[in-house]
């Protein structure tokens, strides 16, 4: 039996987003298409929380069936202050190209894919795409200057659900997570939103 490898996360980088457009076909099916991948901001923390529940049903005075359900996943993002154009995009407000102003118009939220790299203590990294979610939050805190080094950043919640697209690998899914252990080709992972069907194994050319 192969020995257990003990791993821990230590570090996070390369936080990116890609807008998601949904097109309804004549037959009622939905096609999801991703736009250009762009940096969101500097990232301090990505913390995920899975929403699952189970309930035991009893028959003849015995536990007989366990019913489980899966809801949305919530990711807390602690980031440096995004530029105003990016804030308008993820918060669903308005950006004025002429003046560079962020305008607090009535919000129109859209779906995004979210990508990032999680580092491990062993030197490897984990590449992640989360496929369909919306942002909330983005509150600011301004404090008076002191003699200390206090400064404030921003926090968003990204709420993720399953895709409408049914992939050949995995069906309707929420995310893709893969290690840079040499098995998968990750050279273009963040050039576009990499899906379970577009992720390819790394081609190893035999020596000699």
In short:
The chain is mainly beta and 208 residues long.
What would the principal axes of the Cα set say about the shape? Answer: globular
Largest sheet: 9 strands, antiparallel
Q: Which structural category fits the helices and strands?
A: mainly beta
Through-space gap between termini = 32 Å
Rg value = 21 Å
Order of helices and strands: EEEEEHEEEEEE
Report the helical percentage.
Answer: under 10%
Tell me the β content: over 45%
Q: What is the count of β-strands?
A: 11
Number of helical elements: 1
- Average pLDDT metric: 90
Low-confidence stretches: none
Could you please describe the fold and organization of this structure?
This protein is mainly beta. It has a domain at 16-49 and 77-142 and 153-179. 4% of the residues lie in helices and 47% in strands. It has 1 helix and 11 strands. The protein has one helix at 84-91; strands at residues 9-24, 30-34, 38-39, 43-59, 62-79, 94-96, 101-103, 112-120, 125-137, 154-160, 175-179. Strands 1, 2, 3, 4, 5, 8, 9, 10 and 11 form a 9-stranded antiparallel β-sheet that branches. The chain has a two-stranded antiparallel sheet with strand order 6-7. A hairpin with a 4-residue loop joins strand 6 and strand 7 (101-103). The radius of gyration is 21 Å and the shape is globular. It starts with 8 loop residues before the first strand and ends in a 29-residue tail after the last strand.
């Amino acid at each position: 039996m192969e020995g257990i490898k003990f791993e821990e996360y230590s570090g996070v980088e390369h936080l990116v987003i890609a807008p998601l457009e949904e097109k309804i076909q004549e037959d009622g099916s939905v096609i999801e298409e991703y736009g250009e991948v762009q940096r969101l901001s500097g990232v301090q923390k990505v913390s995920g929380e899975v929403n699952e529940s189970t309930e035991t049903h009893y028959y003849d005075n015995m536990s007989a069936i366990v019913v489980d359900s899966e809801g949305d996943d919530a990711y807390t993002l602690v980031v440096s202050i995004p530029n105003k154009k990016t804030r308008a995009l993820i918060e669903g407000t308005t950006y004025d190209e002429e003046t560079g102003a962020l305008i607090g118009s009535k919000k129109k939220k859209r779906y995004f894919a979210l990508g990032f790299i999680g580092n491990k203590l062993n030197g490897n990294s984990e590449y992640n795409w989360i496929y369909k979610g919306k942002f909330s939050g983005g509150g600011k805190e301004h404090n008076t200057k002191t003699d200390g080094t206090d400064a404030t950043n921003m926090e968003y919640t990204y709420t993720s659900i399953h895709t409408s697209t049914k992939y050949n690998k995995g069906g309707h899914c929420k995310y893709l997570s893969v290690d840079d252990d040499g098995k998968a080709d990750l050279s273009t992972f963040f050039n576009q939103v990499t899906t379970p069907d577009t992720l390819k194994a790394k081609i190893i050319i035999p020596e000699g």
